[in-house]
Design a protein that fits this description.
By secondary structure, the chain is mainly alpha-helical. Helix content is about 45%, strand content about 5%. It has 12 helices and 10 strands. The two termini are about 35 Å apart.
């Protein structure tokens, strides 16, 4: 009788533990990845941005390669990489065309997006180590060499990243150079510095820190998505809306995921406002109402103010917030117990 009671008690404890794990961050990540693949990744390996006409872009391909590597999902990684090689790496210089559309011609704008290239190189470097694949490492090095040759340029603030090969320097913009601070992917730089020394990684990181510190505009004291470096101080770029928006929301996210030394730069973002903010007036233009964006706020708040992270189940309605949700949970796991545990 006692043995039977003991067995029942052990089974109950096991079931409770399993249920708790399944509903916690690790369970949310596993379940979210399954749903994400069903909704946004085709069998051929194309990542679908369903809020933008079902296009695919180098950013999305790179993000999903990174998530697949972190979750040890090699079949998905390889499918996404092979689709990317066949459909976006068509320029011939090591950089990827930034956008593919379902309508022919599928790639009509061959310009690159530097953040997409960085994300792909980061994912490839990590996958090369995880699965011991030399081709992944070589492909990552080709991308980084192309970035070094074409996209890292000097400025009065230090070395900067051009967001694309055309459109942001010289005669392309009257207030050039124009940069996007969400392209400073600090956790990627930490990994890629061991892959190639053709980029002054320390200088690039230092410039990013400097620009984030200086780019505090208007009553909100927030950076804009696009920033001009033509003058003595950074300013909102003339040709773009002066908003802290869908791009800039990633600035505090990458800071939180990066080095502890960078986290003093998080303070002006706290508490993070999940809104598109007009920096000239400080007014909200649009609320980032998708529940998956709350994972970014949870991570940034945890790292920046040491508050327990409140993780919610995956929502998964749209590609971009769904992607940031999975990345935030991955980052929380890498940052340790404080941000990955369930709150009491």
């Amino acid at each position: 009788m006692r043995v039977t009671v003991l067995i029942i008690a052990l089974l109950a404890a096991f079931c409770l533990s399993t249920a708790t794990e399944a509903s916690g961050p690790a369970g949310f990540l596993k379940d979210g990845w399954r749903q994400y693949k069903d909704r946004f990744v085709t069998s051929e390996g194309r990542v679908v941005d369903n809020a933008n006409g079902d296009i695919s872009h180098s950013e999305g391909q790179g993000y999903v390669m990174l998530i697949a590597e972190r979750l040890e999902d090699r079949p998905t990684f390889e499918a996404v990489w092979q689709w990317t090689r066949s459909n976006l790496l068509v320029r011939g210089d090591g950089l990827a065309a930034w956008r593919w559309t379902p309508q022919a011609p599928h790639v009509f704008d061959h310009n690159n997006a530097t953040d997409g290239d960085i994300l792909m190189a980061w994912a490839l470097a990590e996958a090369a180590d995880r699965w011991d694949v030399l081709e992944y490492r070589q492909s990552a090095q080709r991308i980084i060499d192309a970035i070094a040759t074409n996209l890292v340029v000097p400025s009065r603030f230090g070395p900067i990243l051009l967001p694309g090969l055309t459109g942001f320097a010289g005669k392309d913009q009257p207030d050039a150079p124009v940069v996007n601070l969400s392209y400073w992917i600090f956790p990627a730089f930490k990994r890629l510095r061991g892959l190639s020394d053709r980029i002054d990684w320390d200088g690039l990181v230092a410039t990013g820190r400097t620009l984030i510190g200086l780019s505090r505009f208007g009553p909100s004291r927030l950076p804009t998505d696009w920033i001009s470096l033509a003058g003595a101080q950074p300013e909102p770029a003339h040709a773009f809306a002066a908003v802290f928006g869908y791009d800039a929301i990633r600035i505090p996210f990458y800071l939180a995921w990066g080095e502890p030394a960078d986290r003093d730069l998080l303070t002006p973002f706290l508490p993070i406002d999940l809104s598109v903010v007009d920096v000239t007036t400080g007014n909200q233009r649009q609320r980032l109402s998708d529940p998956d964006y709350e994972a970014v706020a949870a991570l940034v708040g945890c790292v920046g103010s040491h508050s327990p992270a409140q993780w919610r189940p995956f929502h998964g309605e749209f590609y971009y917030p769904a992607t940031l949700y999975l990345l935030a949970l991955i980052a929380a796991g890498e940052l340790g117990e404080q941000c990955s545990r369930r709150p009491p």
